[in-house]
Amino acid sequence: MTNYRAILQYYSQGNTTTQIATICQCSRTTVIKTIKRAKQIKLNIPVANTISDEQLYLMLYPARGRKQDYYLPNWYELDKDRLKRSFSKRRAWKKYCRVAQKRGLKAYCKTRFYDLYNEYYYSLPKKKGKIGTVLSKIRYYTFGADVIAQQKGTDSYPYQKFIAERDSWCKGLRLDKTKIWAT
C-alpha cells in the first residue's frame, strides 16, 4: 500500500518527484497525483501525526473508501484461526462468507478478500530478514547513527564509517542526503 504520509513529508522537505518515488517505492505518477490532490483539498503539508493513515487516505480519496454494507473481518483473529487450524486462504474466505451472511452483510469476492488479507499480512512486522524497503533503510540509518553517536561520539571511527556507508547508499539511489537527514 502506498505511504501517502511519507510522500507528503518528503515533498515538504524539497525532494523531487523522482526521489520521492524512489524513497516510497511507488510510481512518479502516484507521487504527482498525491501532491496535486493534497493541494486541491488544501491539506497542511507535512500532515500532523494526529491524523491516521486511513483518515489521510480517505481525505485524499473519499470515493475510494470502504463501502459500509460489506463485512470487514478482524484480520488478526482470522489469521490466528487459519494458522491454528492450518487451513488455506480459500477456506478462510469461505468461513468469512458464512460469518458475513450470518451478520446480514455482503461478503467481498474471493480476489478482493485475498487482496485485503495480503495487505494485512504483509503489513505485519517481520521478526527476521533483510531490510526490504527504502523507508526501512532510512529508519535504520537514522536510528543507527543516533545509537552510535550516543555510544561512541560523533568523532569516532565507527560513526564516521556508518555515515560514509549511509552517504554512499544515498548516492547510489540518487537521493539528496540533505533533504532526508539533517547534516
Could you explain the architecture of this structure?
- With 183 residues, this protein is mainly alpha-helical.
- The protein is built from 9 helices and no strands.
- The longest helix has 19 residues, at 134-152.
- Mean pLDDT is 83; it is low at 127-131.
Gross morphology is globular
CA-based gyration radius: 21 Å
H and E string: HHHHHHHHH
Q: What's the average pLDDT?
A: 83
How large is the count of helical segments? 9
> What structural category do the secondary elements indicate?
mainly alpha
Query: Could you estimate the helical fraction of the residues in percent?
Result: 55-70%
Strand content: under 5%
Oligomer: single chain
Query: Low-confidence parts lasting 5 or more residues at pLDDT below 50?
Result: 127-131
Sheet having the most strands? none
In total, how many beta strands? 0
Distance N to C terminus: 30 Å
Descriptive labels:
183 residues, mainly alpha
Write the layout of secondary structure elements.
Elements: H1 4-12, H2 17-24, H3 28-40, H4 53-60, H5 75-85, H6 89-102, H7 110-123, H8 134-152, H9 157-172
Structure at a glance:
Helix content is 61%, strand content 0%. With 183 residues, it is mainly alpha-helical. Helix 8 (134-152) runs antiparallel to helix 9 (157-172).
